[in-house]
Design goal:
The protein is mostly beta strands. Helices cover about 15% and strands about 50% of the residues. The chain has four helices and 19 strands. The chain has a six-stranded antiparallel sheet with strand order 5-6-3-10-13-8, with no helix packed on it. A six-stranded antiparallel sheet has the order 11-12-9-16-19-14, covered by helices on one side.
């Protein structure tokens, strides 16, 4: 499989497949594809895997793509203005991402469900109790709003992140929450009540914009219906 990321702030991942190669994607992610590309909706992994995907806020079915009669290509797009990032997955090199971040992956990559270990992180961390874990071996594509920022944290090194801005992290990274400060800061600082604490070692990926913040920025300009 070969791929390239196209575009700037509304990116697409163009994936080139040889005969017998296959990728799967979140339903509705396809933008365009070659004429010989076969597209099939499947409940990948069976009924239980489909139900788990619904818990992750993904679709029950995923769509599989493979070329017929030679090589072909398919392009996937994100669902918000933002970036697409390839992530290399291998045994011992899994990656955990927020719900809705998964876009597409090689057939040899598995999309699994994982949970926050701490109740406080699940309620107030901005990512919820349920996250997605990418395992297996191959290339996966994730997408998020705005731009990506990456760090590789050393053991014990911490980064404080605005809630909802964490896209993904390696399983070795510890995820927790913390209040932003005193009452005055909580209510008038404009950053909310909690921040997310990521503690190394491991790689983390952040986003510069959340879908919620994007919606709030657009809302004042939406047309109103007179009552």
């Amino acid at each position: 499989m070969k791929y390239r990321i196209m575009g700037d702030n509304l990116q697409m991942a163009l994936v080139e497949l040889a005969q017998n190669e296959k990728v799967y994607a979140e339903a509705g992610a396809m933008n365009h594809m070659s004429g010989n590309m076969v597209m099939e909706a499947r409940a990948r992994g069976g009924l239980m895997s489909g139900l788990k995907r619904k818990l992750m806020n993904e679709t029950f079915f995923v769509t599989e793509f493979y070329p017929s009669g030679g090589s072909g290509y398919v392009a996937f797009r994100g669902n918000v203005p933002g970036k697409i990032m390839p992530v290399e997955i291998a045994p011992g090199k899994e990656f955990i991402v927020q719900k809705d971040a998964f876009l597409a992956a090689e057939d040899s990559v598995n999309l699994e469900i994982t949970f926050q270990r701490r109740l406080g992180s699940g309620f107030f961390g901005g990512e919820g109790f349920i996250l997605e874990k990418l395992t297996g071996q191959g290339t996966a594509f994730i997408n998020a709003a705005g731009d990506f920022v990456e760090y590789v944290l050393q053991p014990g090194q911490q980064v404080k992140v605005s809630t909802g801005c964490v896209v993904g992290f390696e399983p070795t990274v510890h995820f927790d929450i913390q209040t932003v400060g005193g009452l005055k800061t909580m209510f008038f600082g404009g950053e909310g009540v909690f921040v997310t604490i990521l503690t190394g070692p491991g790689r983390i990926v952040l986003q510069s914009m959340t879908i919620g913040n994007l919606a709030m920025a657009i809302y004042p300009f939406l047309p109103r219906t007179n009552q």
